[in-house]
Amino acid sequence: MKKLAIFDFDGTILDSAADVISCFNEALSVNGFKTLTDDEYLEKLGGNIDQTVSLILKDENTIENMELIKNTYREIYNSSEKENTKPFEGVHETLKSLEEKGILLAIDSNRSTESLNLPDLLEVGDS
C-alpha cells in the first residue's frame, strides 16, 4: 500500500505573505484604493482570492472593484520576482525525508498550476 501526504501550499509549505501583501498593496494603489498594513493583511489572508479581496475592499466591495483588484493583483503578482517568497524553515528536509521513505507528496492549493513551480521551490518531486 502506498502512502500519501497532502499539504496546503501558501502558509504551510511556502511563506509568500510578504510578496502577496506587496502585490496587493500595489494593485490597490494603482487603482486609487487605500493600502493596508501588513497586520491588516495577515488578518485577511488565508482564503481564496475572492474572499481575500472582499475583505480587503470592505465598504468598497462591488463586483467591478473585485474584478479590477483581482485582475490587477494577478498581473502584478505573476510578473513579480517574488524575492521574499521561500519555503518555511525545515520544509526541504521534511519533504526530502518523506520522499526518501517512498511517501507520495501532493500539494492542494488555490493557486494556478503555472504559479506553483514546485520542483524549483521545494527541490523535490517532479510536479
From TrEMBL:
Record flagged with keyword ATP-binding: no
Alphabetically ordered keywords of this record: Hydrolase
Pfam family, one: HAD_2
GO MF annotation: an example: phosphoglycolate phosphatase activity
Protein origin, superkingdom: Archaea
Transmembrane segment boundaries: none
Gene Ontology CC entries for this record: cytosol
Gene Ontology annotations of biological process type: DNA repair
Protein name (record): Haloacid dehalogenase-like hydrolase
Taxonomic lineage from the root: Archaea, Methanobacteriati, Methanobacteriota, Methanomada group, Methanobacteria
